[in-house]
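User: Hello! My lab partner asked me to get a predicted holo structure for this protein. The small molecule is LMH73ZQ5, SMILES included with the sequence. Please write out the structure tokens.
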Amino acid sequence: MSLALCALSHTPVMGVHQPADEVVARVEAALDDARAFVADVDPDLVVVFAPDHYNGFLYDLMPSFCIGAQATAIGDYGTSAGPLPVDRAAARSLASAVLDAGVDVAFSERMTVDHGCAQPLDLLFGGIDTVPVVPVFINCVAEPLGPVSRVRLLGEAVGRAAAALDRRVLLLGSGGLSHDPPVPRLTEAPPEVVERLISGRNPTPEERAARQDRVFDAALAYAAGTSDLMPLNPEWDRRFLEVLGGGDLAQLDSWSNESFVQEAGHSSHEVRTWIAVHAALGAMGPYEVRSTFYEAIPEWIAGFGVTTAETRGR
Ligand SMILES: O=C(O)CCC(=O)/C=C/C=C(\O)C(=O)O
Ligand SMILES: [Fe+2]
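Assistant: Hello! Below are the structure tokens for the protein in complex with LMH73ZQ5.
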């Protein structure tokens, strides 16, 4: 049995509008480090904690958390599409254990995932179908959100259950850090957008392209300094990474949801996936960060981080 962790930001803009070559080279080097770490871990199961951006989880029924026993990726923003090789027995076992631990996780036999789940699998494994996975959805976008303490408890419960599987498990987190890309919000959107947030599954290719172009245009304006989207907050990002590295995750329980938005933007809630993977790893004892990378990348509207960690003394 072993647990290891990799957490990384995702961005729809990667490969579309690139930052300066030296920035891309630094990101690639960090991803190379992470790939080497993952190759060394040689996981036979990846538990991937990911948000969704109104593709698989909409306001017709929005759970806080959901474990998928079967899942399909839609292939947005150039990420891989198709069925994920979900380990159904492991998914059921994790869901049962998490429920037994008192965390009311939803369970899906038809989960739809988007770039939030597919991009880190593409980046680390070269595709979404190379290693058995269990996808764990964490709502990071659709307010109202529960407190981050619940995410920590979810992570701890998954970590204990994953350790009991007697497998080499990689805990993979995808999202954030500080960023506030143009993701619609129910309380502020015009009626036609509200309707798609509630029941807009399976948009036409044209509708999908329009949504994606909106994000690409926003990234160009952001990089050009002509956007009114909120600035990235590297200071906040580094403070957050420091807390995760220190292992005392309960400190984060006092960070209110409002403070995330005010200091680091609405989509900084995606760091819930980082909290979950660190809590999962920490559930089995103290851990050590093996590598960490951070850079604020306006071209991608992203405080971009990559962290690897494993149980101390492994
Ligand atoms: O238009 C929509 O409904 C969603 C737009 C979208 O998918 C944006 C995604 C941005 C990220 O995933 C990110 O920067 O983390
Ligand atoms: Fe995202």
